[in-house]
């Protein structure tokens, strides 16, 4: 028999720490009882001592040269069978990469079978397999060796005792659910080598307060850090994909910086981060997704980048402390986008805006509003229940049903030319509204359009109108005078229900008189319409400085009854304001208080509501500014 030199490590469940480096002659004894089985484990020896403590390390220095080695002759079985181990037996022995703690296939750590504590991933391991440590509640620290490049899904999911994770610099990806519900982790640094973080990778790590992301990261998966305790976040400029719910429900998150490389802030990305107060969005971001910052009740301000074009539905819904400005390139504001943003007080709608969704600004704190003609779609209740809204100018033909319902502070409304109808319930229950200017392009006032406008005293309808819908002026308890032209031929039911003081002014023999007679409403015969000719003069023109006083005088002839004069101002952004409401006084004084192009309008109206408009334009500059406005004089229209 040949003599064989090798080391035998027999590890049982009660294995002891020992060091071995010796030669032995193995003899396999044949027992008379043929039912006895013999097992052995082979551990290679590279000439150094090895410490074994709760784990077995398989070394690579295997000596297969057995030419000069012999073994003692083994005992034979009762039947005479030879039980000696031949050279071919050794060569065919498969080294199983299974130890008391790790199950390893090739370079993949398939399963951890130890009791936990402090664990280091052995060198040579490149991948931590799916669910390898899942629900190992005794695991406290994990240190990756430099050979690890991937952490598969669920690898450490549910390791509730895991406090410390040290990731290596060669790691490329972290799989979905990899560290989910590791509720004791307080800090994590993602190395620069990591390119992707999978969905829900660190979700429900409720103790995680410190997160460091490094340049090199490209994608942050859906819900990857949702419901963690991180308090501040800087997303590196290499990130191009941020998935939905990525940081949702992070209740302690106060500061966020998102680079322009992200391009789109996805749906629900920061939803319910109710401590979030400061957000920095980089230029390059074009879209804020559905509910991206929904119910971030601590958010007070956000500087929207000029690159932003779309604010999707529910984007800032419930951000009750938010006050921000809209940028000029925004094209779409989705439904419920700023719903219940009670602190939102000043917005300027740019000429690029096309769509305003249902209830987009419902119950906000805006005080003044001008909607440009560029807006082609306005949803239901878009500005309803805005309790602080006082003045509204609408130049968009897309004005919608219930658009300004329950705006209880709204006093004055100017509807621009081009609008063909006032939709149903559009100004319903605007209880402070005292006047509304309706252009001669409007043909229909729909059902309930101005119902409940209890402070409205006079309404002048242009001769373009053909139909008045049901309940249009119901519950208008202060309404005393409504001028209805001959053009109106269709009257809905209950038109003036609970408006006991109304008097209809119209042409004798018209449908208006017939309606008044049938509904027991006082009718006054108004004279036939007479045209108005007018002009507007001022003592200054062209370019003026801030602080300059300008005197206006309107001259008008024709019309029916006493003429009244109303002065308004519009700035370069399209924002309107009433300088003085209707008065028999034709003159008006105005002092330029801010720079920019300004247009002063004078509306001249007779007793029948026939109105003409004249205007003068100015370029207002500061004391040290250079006049770059080419128009040398006032422009009269």
Descriptive report:
- The protein is an all-beta fold.
- The strands form ten sheets. An eight-stranded mixed beta sheet has the order 1-2-4-6-8-10-12-14, with no helix packed on it. The chain has a six-stranded parallel beta sheet with strand order 16-18-20-21-22-24, with no helix packed on it. Strands 37-43-42-39-40 form a five-stranded mixed beta sheet, with no helix packed on it.
- Strand 39 (564-571) and strand 40 form a beta hairpin.
- The protein starts with 86 loop residues before the first helix and ends in a 16-residue tail after the last strand.
Arithmetic mean pLDDT: 83
N-to-C span: 120 Å
| Percent strand | 25-35%
Radius of gyration: 41 Å
In percent, how helical is the residue content? under 10%
Specify the overall morphology: elongated
Structural class, from helix and strand content?
mainly beta
Per DSSP E runs of 2 or more residues, the count of β-strands stands at 43
Low-confidence stretches: 1-98, 624-637
User: Numbering strands along the chain, what is their spatial order in the largest sheet?
Assistant: 1-2-4-6-8-10-12-14
The DSSP helix count reads: 2
Draw up the topology in text.
Layout: H1 87-91, E1 102-105, E2 108-112, E3 117-120, E4 127-128, E5 139-143, E6 150-151, E7 164-166, E8 173-174, E9 187-190, E10 196-197, E11 210-213, E12 219-220, E13 232-234, E14 241-242, E15 255-258, E16 264-265, E17 278-281, E18 287-288, E19 301-303, E20 310-311, E21 332-333, E22 355-356, E23 368-371, E24 377-378, E25 391-394, E26 412-415, E27 421-422, E28 435-437, E29 444-445, E30 458-460, E31 467-468, E32 481-483, E33 490-491, E34 503-506, H2 511-518, E35 522-525, E36 532-538, E37 542-545, E38 549-558, E39 564-571, E40 576-583, E41 587-591, E42 596-605, E43 611-621
Parallel strand pairs: 2-4, 3-5, 4-6, 5-7, 6-8, 8-10, 9-11, 10-12, 12-14, 13-15, 15-17, 16-18, 17-19, 18-20, 20-21, 21-22, 22-24, 23-25, 25-26, 26-28, 27-29, 29-31, 30-32, 31-33, 32-34, 34-35, 37-43
Antiparallel strand pairs: 1-2, 36-38, 38-41, 39-40, 39-42, 42-43
């Amino acid at each position: 028999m040949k003599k064989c030199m090798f080391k035998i490590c027999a590890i049982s469940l009660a294995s002891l720490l020992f060091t071995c480096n010796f030669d032995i002659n193995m003899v396999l004894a044949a027992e008379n009882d043929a039912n006895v089985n013999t097992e052995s484990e082979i551990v290679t020896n590279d000439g150094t001592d090895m410490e074994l403590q709760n784990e077995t390390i398989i070394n690579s220095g295997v000596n297969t040269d057995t030419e000069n080695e012999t073994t003692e002759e083994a005992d034979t079985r009762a039947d005479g069978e030879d039980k000696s181990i031949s050279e071919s037996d050794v060569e065919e022995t498969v080294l199983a990469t299974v130890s008391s703690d790790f199950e390893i296939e090739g370079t993949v750590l398939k399963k951890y079978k130890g009791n936990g504590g402090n664990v280091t991933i052995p060198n040579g391991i490149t991948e931590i397999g799916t669910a390898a440590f899942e629900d190992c509640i005794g695991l406290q620290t994990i240190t990756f060796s430099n050979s690890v490049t991937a952490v598969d899904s669920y690898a450490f999911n549910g390791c509730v005792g895991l406090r410390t994770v040290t990731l290596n610099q060669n790691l490329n990806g972290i799989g979905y659910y990899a560290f989910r519900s590791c509720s004791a982790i307080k800090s994590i640094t993602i190395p620069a080598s990591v390119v992707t973080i999978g969905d829900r990778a660190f979700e429900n790590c409720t103790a995680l307060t410190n997160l460091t992301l490094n340049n090199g990261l490209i994608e942050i998966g859906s819900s990857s850090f949702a419901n963690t305790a991180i308090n501040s976040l800087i997303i590196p400029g290499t990130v191009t994909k941020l998935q939905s719910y990525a940081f949702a429900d992070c209740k302690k998150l106060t500061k966020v910086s998102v680079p322009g490389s992200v391009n789109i802030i996805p749906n629900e990305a920061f939803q319910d981060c109710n401590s979030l107060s400061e957000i920095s969005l980089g230029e390059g971001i074009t879209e804020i997704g559905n509910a991206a910052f929904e119910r971030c009740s601590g958010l007070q301000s956000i500087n929207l980048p000029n690159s932003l074009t779309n604010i999707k539905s529910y984007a800032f819904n419930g951000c009750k402390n938010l006050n921000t400005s809209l940028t000029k390139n925004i094209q779409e504001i989705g439904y419920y986008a700023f719903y219940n943003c009670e602190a939102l007080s000043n917005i300027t709608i740019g000429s690029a805006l096309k769509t305003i969704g249902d209830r987009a600004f419902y119950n906000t704190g805006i005080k003044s509003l001008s909607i440009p003609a560029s807006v082609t779609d306005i949803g239901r209740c878009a500005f309803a229940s805005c309790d602080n809204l006082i003045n509204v100018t609408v130049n968009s033909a897309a004005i919608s049903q219930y658009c300004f319902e329950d705006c209880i502070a709204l006093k004055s409304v100017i509807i621009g030319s081009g609008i063909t109808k006032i939709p149903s319930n559009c100004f319903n229950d605007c209880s402070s509204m005292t006047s509304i200017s309706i252009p001669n392009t409007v043909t229909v006032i729909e059902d309930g359009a101005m119902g409940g406008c209890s402070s409205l005293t006079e309404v002048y309808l242009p001769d373009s109108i053909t139909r008045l819908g049901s309940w249009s002026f119901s519950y208008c308890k202060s309404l005393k005078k409504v001028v209805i032209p001959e053009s109106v031929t269709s009257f809905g039911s209950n038109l003036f229900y609970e408006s006991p003081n109304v008097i209809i002014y119209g042409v004798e023999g018209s449908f208006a008189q017939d309606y008044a007679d049938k509904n027991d409403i006082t009718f006054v015969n108004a004279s036939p319409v007479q045209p108005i000719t007018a002009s507007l003069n001022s003592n200054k023109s062209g370019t003026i400085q801030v602080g300059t006083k300008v005197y206006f005088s309107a001259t008008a002839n024709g019309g029916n009854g006493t003429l009244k004069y109303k002065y308004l101002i519009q700035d370069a952004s399209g924002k309107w304001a009433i300088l003085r409401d209707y008065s028999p006084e034709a003159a008006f004084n105005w002092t330029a208080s801010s720079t920019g192009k300004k247009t002063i309008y004078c509306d001249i109206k007779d007793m029948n509501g026939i109105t003409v408009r004249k205007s003068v334009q100015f370029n207002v500059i500061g004391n040290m500014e250079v006049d770059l406005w080419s128009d040398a004089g006032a422009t009269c229209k």
